[in-house]
Amino acid sequence: MSSIYALFGRSIALLAIVLQGACAELPQHVDRPVSTALRSPNGTALETLVQQRRKADAARFESGFLLLGGPPAAYGSRLALIEGAQKTLDLQYYAIHTDASTGRLLRGIRAAAERGVRVRILLDDLHSTGRDALVLGLAFVPNIEMRLFNPLAGARDSSFARVLNSIGDASRIQQRMHNKLFLADNVLGVTGGRNLGDAYFGNALKGNYIDVDILAAGPIVQDLSRSFDSYWNNERAYPVQSLVKPGELKAMRERAQQADRELADESARTQNPSQPTPQPAAPEGGEPKPGAPPTPAQLARAWDEKPLDLRTARFVWAPAVMLADQPGKIPADKGPEKTRAPGLVVSQPGDAAGSSRRAAALEATSDLAAGSDTVVEGLLQLIGQARSDLLIISPYFVPGPDMKQAFAAARDRGVRIRVLTNSLASNDAPVAHVGYARHRRDLIKIGVELYELRSEQAGVSNAFGSSGSDGSLGESRSMLHSKVLVMDGRLLVVGSMNLDLRSQLQNTEIALLVRSAELSRAASDQIELGMREGSWRVELNDGSLVWRAPEGSGLKDTSTEPDASLTLRLLLRLFGPLAPDQLL
């Protein structure tokens, strides 16, 4: 399961509300040595490179940005940060999967630690079970520290068992750290929607996510690092060694190796004898390697990706601010902080860049968002300032009352609003689609233009820079995972948040707001092409919903959820009303 929004995860959250039971205890009096980001990147190779690039571009602003749309750029940027780091690597993720793509990244991280780079990895604890728990072996590697945020107590054989073991604290376990950061030497960093795993880098066989990241360079990265430090040093972050012992990891590794051997043997019995048998990539020496076993095509693709050439990458230099939920949005397990302590961290465009270059328009944006409690509420405040156009991608789109009110007020001002979200067929969490579907008619009546992603890979590969024609592993299913907002053609927002009540009220999130017409135009061009050629336009016709086929697809308009089975449609109709919006 790759997302809290997957059907299993949401079902567990709902089950936890219904059931009653004892809460397993987490360790007490845990030693959490305080550490912080590199004080200054001065003198590092990456900092020198950033300054050279800025000088060559005669840039007015100190921070630069590169939009990462397709898997090669997204994967290559992380490889480049791993290889270029000399002092520190800081990673903060909701999910890290042990598969072919992540295996290569983690081996690079281990190599960086061996050459003296201090590595800190902060991982939300929901998915560190089964084979994915093998990533925890990095915590026992010299120069690598690893902590789990908001952990669940109990054995790591399955997510289901651990959640049931913790249902006495149901309100806490469904609140997750959803932030994504990949930072090198406090001067270059990636944030956005991607977790780490094959499906996020176009390397999965059955389904791949369409996602967007942004590579940031310069002083804005120091703001991202401060956010990372606030989570790393928080009492909800538990060192892996306090939760998992080496013997447990050894047993998990042995079980994974046995499963790999059995799968390889089964494959050898069923495939053409003339074809080579896939060999399992068994974890060894405490290092998590690709799992289960990868196919030759997957391994070849993961190894074929090249690091992004930062010397030639075209940065756009622009003013920017960071929005980040505070870790206190997730209550502490015990004590007085059990009461939620929300609060939005908003960086100021002049904090690192220097007051002489503060952008007045962006300062106003920052001041406005600072009056909000969460990242999503900050974005709703921004929507209140839109004057002409809002272009939004939210894969899980469950608008609460205040969100619908913000859209209605913007429409009253004449703002055009277009939203791209998942169709039922492309949604990896079909039950989440219920929360969107129950508001669909109201949104259309308000005047919001709705587009739903077509699930087939062929329909969207070129529009969004996903795998497809540039080397995908077959015609895999596409699932939208990007979180992007473009306002008035001049403000670009890329982050980890969805426009849903879970991101607004439950999970912690992070986002970058960049004031750039150039970046906004590049993002808009991609989104609009995807809407035209890769998505269904949903409209009301005489009170009934109609899905208009994508341009050039050869498909026909339809009056039912496109590409979704009758069984799935009926199940969601029956059980969907039982699920409240805030849990979807």
Question: How does this structure look, described?
Answer:
The relative contact order is 0.14. This protein has two domains: about 5-20 and about 40-305, Endonuclease, Chain A (2-Layer Sandwich), CATH 3.30.870.10; about 365-580, Endonuclease, Chain A (2-Layer Sandwich), CATH 3.30.870.10. The chain has helices spanning about 5-20, 45-55, 70-85, 100-115, 160-165, 170-175, 220-230, 245-270, 295-305, 360-370, 375-385, 400-410, 430-435, 440-445, 460-465, 500-505, 515-535, 565-575, and strands at about 65-70, 90-95, 120-125, 145-150, 180-185, 190, 205-210, 215, 235-240, 315, 320-325, 345, 390-395, 415-420, 450-455, 475-480, 485, 490-495, 510-515, 535-540, 545-550. Helix 3 packs parallel to helix 4. The strands form three sheets. A ten-stranded mixed beta sheet has the order 12-11-19-18-17-13-14-15-20-21, sandwiched between helices. The chain is an alpha+beta fold and about 575 residues long. A hairpin with a 2-residue loop joins strand 20 and strand 21 (about 545-550).
- Classify the beta-strand content into a percent band: 15-25%
What class would the helix/strand composition place it in? alpha+beta
The appropriate CATH architecture of the largest domain is: 2-Layer Sandwich
Uncertain stretches: 1-9, 16-22, 275-291, 335-339, 350-358, 457-463, 465-474
* Biggest β-sheet description: 10 strands, mixed
Helix content: 25-40%
Note the gap between the termini.
Answer: 16 Å
Q: Major sheet: order of its strands?
A: 12-11-19-18-17-13-14-15-20-21
Shape: globular
